[in-house]
Amino acid sequence: MKYFLLATANRKYGLPFEEVEFGVLKKGILSCSAKDAKILVKAHGALVSEITEEVYNDFKKKEPVLTSTTQLRTVYQDPLKDPNAVYAEKAEVVQASPSAKASDLVTIGDVVVDDPLSETE
Q: Do 28 and 8 touch, CB atoms closer than 8 A?
């Protein structure tokens, strides 16, 4: 048996293969007979590279892992506000119970308003 690492998993190589993750790239691995291996290398050349059985088995055992990507932390934002603006937090208003009646605090009196049009006659 011969074992190969395929450059990309998006291509048809003429033989069934398994898709594996190689870092962040999707590649393929396959095992085939020596006769099929000659045809594969002749047809696809640099797109296939021979690997050992040990490497092939390691790829088969490998769990898919995110190696080069990080999870982004998402934060809820109000869609009606500008994301680049800095908004002040509203202070909590504490209402104290009034110590005096409103009528004692406010005095209402009469006001005399002069009519400027009456002087121009």
A: yes
